[in-house]
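Archive maintenance. Older records in this collection stored only the sequence; we are now back-filling the structure field for every entry so that each record is complete. The fields below show one back-filled record exactly as it appears after the update. Entries are processed alphabetically, and ABC transporter permease is next in the queue.

ARCHIVE ENTRY
Title: ABC transporter permease
Organism field: Promicromonospora citrea
Length field: 564
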Amino acid sequence: MDRDRRGLTRTPAPYLWAAAVAVPLGFLGVFFAWPVAALVVRGFVPDGALDLGGFTEVLSRPRTWRLVGLTLTQAALGTVFSVLLGLPLAYLLYRRSFPGRTLVRGLVTVPFVLPAVVVGVAFRTLFAPGGTLGFLGLEESLAGIVVALVFFNVSVVVRTVGGLWERLDPRTEQAAASLGASPARVLRTVTLPALAPAVASAASVVFLFCATAFGVVLVLGGVRYGTVETEIWTRTTQFLDLRSASVLSILQLVVITAALAASARARRRREAALRLVSARVAARSLSWRSPADVAAALGGVVIVGGLLVLPLAGLVARSFREPDGSWGLANYVALGTTGERNALVVTVWEATATSLRIALVATVLSLVVGGLVALVVSRRPRSSGARRAVGVLDGLFMLPLGVSAVTVGFGFLITLDQPVLGVDLRTSGLLVPVAQAVVAVPLVVRTVLPVLRAVDPRLREVAAVLGSGPGRVLRTVDLPIALRSVGLATGFAFAVSLGEFGATSFLARPDGATLPVVIYRLVGRPGAENYGMALAASVVLAVLTATVMMVAERLRDERAGGEF
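Back-filled structure field:
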């Protein structure tokens, strides 16, 4: 053991870092890699012997390639439109100041963490024949799905690009303008090239989210439109066709691995760009004499009002419409019941309490695991081998973003039917929060990691030279800086856990159903009262999620630079 200047024994650094690596790897191995691998293996070893005939069978189906084509098409369209609409919002919210800017920033962030079931119900209500936009004929259409995906992901572009845009030195643009360049040419030749790393990073993440969208496609796609993700769910739950589900999971994993590699490369370029630019530049007041400001303001009103507010406002308004066509609170009063013809086992309020309790446990788990991952990956080892190992660890913990939550949930049922470390997770109530934590960990990492990477390594070196042990360096240098992003990371983790549906739909017992599961069950049951309850329950879940994110945004330290 080493001793510091006061003669106190301190733990050697290798043991600390070994523990910091072992805990997240153990969590990932037991609760992600094992369930996914077990499901894939079971699909290829149906009778105890290896059988690869499933590949030929699945890949020879025209339906498979149609689903792959639809998946890639919706992901590409969702990415393109998210970037096109996100850029003017990023300019408005990060380069200009105006009353209520913080509130609008929080409002733009809310859709990203809204439960997929809520968004699906909101747009279904909007596009229905009697809905506000029913005349557009977007019900059960690819265009309707893409609009909903843009609703989800435009905030990713706004936050990722805005974080770099607010640090760009405006004098470069001013110099180009003084040399006679028009505002459009300045944007094209100066601003956009400088923003390219952030745009590429945002686009790769949005493509990943669009390609793995589940709840939105399940609710809005109907029988005409499906994706690889929904087909995995259908093959697993309705046909028990594990072989086909395994092949589709591998296809999806190949696409997601490529997207993750592109995302990691783009993220490194963005972080390098952030290190090269100056500190945050004070935003200028919005000027109505500037054509660019006027265009951005008008575009922001249209995007926020038409894309983000209208669907949610329509959902809220429709939730007050009673089955007989009158207006009232009947749908909300019915939340204390089990629905028409006992459609549910528990009431919506009981499901809400269950969701909050589970989300709290999942948030704690994801903060611990994600915080350790961010701490380890934020280091910059001197040896090339250690740097590669850190990069591999970073990539491994991004995999849950791309692998189907349905695959994870069904894998849990297969592998965790026996006690783990003496604990029966199925009866302890930990199965669902653990699954939700697996989904939330990557978001925690992406929120905390950029903040830790921004720490000047010389601060740690100075503290070590002055006699501080590894534990004290972490406590006095890293922890205070990391705490700047903990509020936002907590909000993301809690909101994502509240709305998680894919894995939870497999794991939640009828008497312990969460709010998203209850909403989906109500939507799928006949009866106007059940559908009205689904609308009211969706509003409740949306308000909970929005409140969490608005509070997290208010607690967010402006110096924190998380990716989302």
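Update note: Residues 1-10+329-378+426-564 form a domain with the MetI-like fold fold (CATH 1.10.3720.10). The chain has two domains: 1-10+329-378+426-564, 59-316.
Entry marked complete.
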